[in-house]
Amino acid sequence: MRNTALAHTALLGALAAAALTGCSADPGRPTDAHATSASPEARWKPRPGLPWQWQLDGKVDPSADVPVYDIDGFENSAADVARLHRDGRKVICYVNVGAWEDFRPDKDAFPRSVLGEPNGWAGERWLDIRQIAVLRPLMERRFDMCRDKGFDAVEPDLVEGYGNDTGFPLTARDQLRYNRMIADIAHERGLSVGLKNDLPQIPQLLADFDFAVNEECAQYDECARLSPFIAAGKAVFHVEYTEPRSGFCPVSRRLGLSSMVKQPELGVWRKPC
Q: Quick one: pLDDT at residue 96?
């Protein structure tokens, strides 16, 4: 639920850093014994073109006739996920991994040392993603919640802090390390994981993520940058908020994106391509 307009200008400024550091070896990538404990073959692998529903505003409404639902992991129960499964749907667990939220039940588990600047959303502050030892167990518990509720996948949000004014000197290398850690945590639990926005690092992260979630690539004429996911047989779940469907749906269909128009609140309403 993060409009890319908030970070788009700053993120373009990080392109050079991404190019310089993205191809380096990643010494911070976890190498614990659990990293390969879940068989890749057992994970859900969404293919390009799947219709989807993205509802982060409150408890899920199961009325959309689509095979994929992306819903808030905290606000929905195991029973909600099971109901969607009974209807033949796969379910993605939305979790914020890049910012602290003062309305989550685990808010007091985050030490003040990892809390940065406000990110433009009420009650949220950027996280210092360099502090892996602090953040990894917190994110593991959140992903445990997704697994225990029966979700098939995770949508980790705000994984492009390096292109924003976070209050910390984050680099593209820091972001690659953190994003790969997030992907590993998901895979260890048998969950597939999507790369949310972060277009500059797609070449470096394509192998680590099972699908992509994107906001407003049509508005910024960037949808072609998601083509590596499609070429790899991985779905790209895409939304626009202000663009008319007539302006972007033909391109989306040609590229193989799973596109729709949503309102920024991400309620039930949707207009698919």
A: 98
